Amino acid sequence: MVRKIAWLITGVVMLLGLSTCSKKRSTAPGGGGLPATYTTYSASVQPIWNLQCSGIGCHVSAGVLPGGGLRLDNGVSHSNLVNTASQDFPSLIRVVPNKVDSSYLIDKLEGTQASVGGGGDRMPQIGGFLSATTINVIKAWIQDSARFQ
User: Fold this and answer.
1) Which residues have a Cβ under 8 Å from the Cβ of 70 and sit 6 or more positions away?
2) pLDDT in tens, 82-137
3) Domains: count for the chain
4) I want to staple 54 with a disulfide (CB 3.0 to 4.6 A). Which of 26, 28, 60, 81 is the partner?
5) Residue by residue, what is the 3-state secondary structure of 104-118?
6) pTM score of the predicted model
């Protein structure tokens, strides 16, 4: 009888363990409490730039060099961000894959750029600053390898 109960308990524990294996993780790799997005750069990050940065005429090439030399329009934004030094502060990398705290872009969006040796204004300058939720989408993308998908 004791053996049957032990086998029953073992079976229940194994079933519970297997059921949790199929669930998606609730935070981005590396933790930080950031939500895992599992969405593409073009579907989750580029629309932020289109709405808040390039779509309003600031970080686009319209015959004039955009602010900080950073273009954020479709087709060029990813390569202008990932593993690319800031034009004004070359020792600061705009986006370091998997390293939110080393990504100067986040400092510019949160207004902490001076604390890392950067400068200039918090971004975006027009239309209001990004919400914490929106910045968290960008952080989750960076933490999840900052891939272009």
Assistant:
1) 59, 80, 81, 87, 94
2) 999 999 999 999 999 999 999 999 999 999 999 999 999 999 988 899 999 999 99
3) 1
4) 60
5) HHHHHHHCCHHHHCC
6) 0.72
